[in-house]
């Protein structure tokens, strides 16, 4: 099973076409019908669509057929804006490879290099991809030379694409399957999974998006968070999809999925924590995950004093959706 899975992220500077490429890949794999397709399909927040930027890293599971063999592509679209680089580091921690998108008119920019360093720290296979080659001012040869000089990445095997028109996207999918390595976890080992995102759902409670490294997670299994030492039963499991999530009874080694634990308190699921089996635990948690460093500090208080608990509850939900936020009461 593992050898037919590819976990990869899309990284780039802001406005170099990550979300547009994600849309084209989803369309090419046939995961969304043409009538359901919309621009920025993976950007689900209103502010993302309004401003045309990605803030939250999003994941989607796609099925692709090559030479009669079915492959599972787990695509993670990441933000390019410098303010959201923490989202990028979380996504890359759960990937095996990354598409490095560079605009054929603008070349290598600051956030391109910053994201490449994060990818290299995670030992990811990088695929250079030059986007927007349909523009009159496109100069892909100069851009590839720039990538080799500024980053030191070998660009002999690169993909020239236009995410807007779909030109070169089928060839890019072939490159992903050939060049990005498959996961290589131990299928018979105790459960070991990394929580790389979490958010709050009004109906299901706190949800954890995980990458399974060893073993598997089954519906009804008692699991333990290794850092918070909290134990909880898995109520249901789903594969991520921007329109309709798909239920499953098991997340196998190398897979990415959503774990529903029915937790009402948000401090139990910590991003970067390791999930393991409650009885048969894994020996070591997944390392190399760094908590976010705060840069902006502010004091908040409600105008009406009886709203203090409402503010605390709202901040806790916000922290679950964005684990780079931390807060504590002043008195």
Describe it for me?
- The chain is α+β, with helices and mostly antiparallel strands and 331 residues long.
- It has two domains: 2-179, Rossmann fold, CATH 3.40.50.300; 185-331, Beta Barrel (Elongation Factor Tu (Ef-tu), domain 3).
- It contains seven helices and 16 strands.
- It has helices at 18-28, 46-51, 85-93, 110-121, 140-151, 169-179, 308-321, and strands at 5-12, 58-66, 69-77, 97-103, 125-131, 159-160, 192-201, 205-214, 217-218, 222-225, 231-233, 236-239, 246-248, 250-251, 256-263, 274-277.
- The protein has an eight-stranded antiparallel β-sheet. Strands 2-3-1-4-5-6 form a six-stranded mixed β-sheet, sandwiched between helices. Strands 9-14 form a two-stranded antiparallel sheet.
- The radius of gyration is 20 Å and the shape is globular.
- The termini are far apart.
Summarize the model shown.
The chain has 331 residues and is of the alpha+beta class.
CATH topology assignment of the largest domain: Rossmann fold
Count of separate DSSP helical elements: 7
Uncertain residue segments: 47-56
Q: Estimate the strand proportion.
A: 25-35%
- What is the oligomer described by this structure? single chain
Name given to the CATH homologous superfamily of the largest domain: P-loop containing nucleotide triphosphate hydrolases
Q: What is the string of SSEs from the N terminus onward?
A: EHHEEHEHEHEHEEEEEEEEEEH
- State the distance separating the first and last CA atoms: 53 Å
* Domain tally: 2
Radius of gyration: 20 Å
Helical proportion?
Answer: 10-25%
Main beta sheet, described? 8 strands, antiparallel
CATH class of the largest domain: Alpha Beta
Shape: globular
């Amino acid at each position: 099973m593992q050898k037919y899975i590819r976990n990869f992220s899309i990284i780039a500077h802001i406005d170099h076409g990550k979300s547009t490429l994600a849309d084209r890949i989803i369309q090419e794999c046939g995961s969304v019908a043409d009538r359901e397709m919309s621009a920025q399909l993976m950007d689900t927040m209103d502010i993302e669509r309004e401003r045309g930027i990605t803030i939250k890293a999003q994941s989607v599971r796609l099925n692709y057929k090559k030479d009669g063999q079915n492959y599972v592509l787990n695509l993670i679209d990441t933000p390019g804006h410098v303010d959201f680089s923490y989202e990028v580091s979380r996504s890359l921690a759960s990937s095996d490879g990354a598409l490095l998108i560079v605009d054929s008119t603008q070349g290598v920019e600051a956030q391109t290099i910053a994201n490449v360093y994060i990818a290299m720290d995670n030992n990811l296979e990088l695929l250079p991809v030059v986007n927007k080659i349909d523009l009159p001012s496109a100069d892909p040869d100069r851009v590839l030379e720039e990538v080799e000089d500024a980053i030191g990445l070998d660009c002999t095997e690169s993909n020239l694409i236009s995410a807007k028109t779909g030109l070169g996207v089928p060839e890019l999918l072939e490159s992903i399957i050939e060049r990005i390595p498959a996961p290589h976890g131990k299928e018979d080992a105790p459960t070991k999974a990394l929580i790389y995102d979490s958010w709050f759902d009004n109906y299901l409670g706190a949800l954890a998006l995980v990458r399974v490294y060893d073993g598997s997670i089954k519906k009804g299994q008692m699991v333990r968070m290794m850092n918070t030492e909290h134990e909880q039963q898995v109520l249901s499991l789903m594969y991520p999809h921007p329109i309709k999530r798909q239920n499953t009874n098991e997340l196998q080694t190398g897979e990415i999925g959503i774990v529903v634990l029915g937790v009402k308190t948000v401090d139990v699921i910590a991003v970067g924590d390791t999930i393991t089996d409650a009885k048969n635990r894994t020996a070591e948690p997944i390392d190399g995950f760094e908590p976010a460093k705060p840069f902006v500090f502010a004091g908040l208080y409600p105008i009406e004093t009886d709203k203090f608990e409402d503010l605390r509850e709202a901040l806790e939900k916000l922290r679950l959706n964005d684990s780079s936020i931390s807060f504590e009461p002043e008195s």
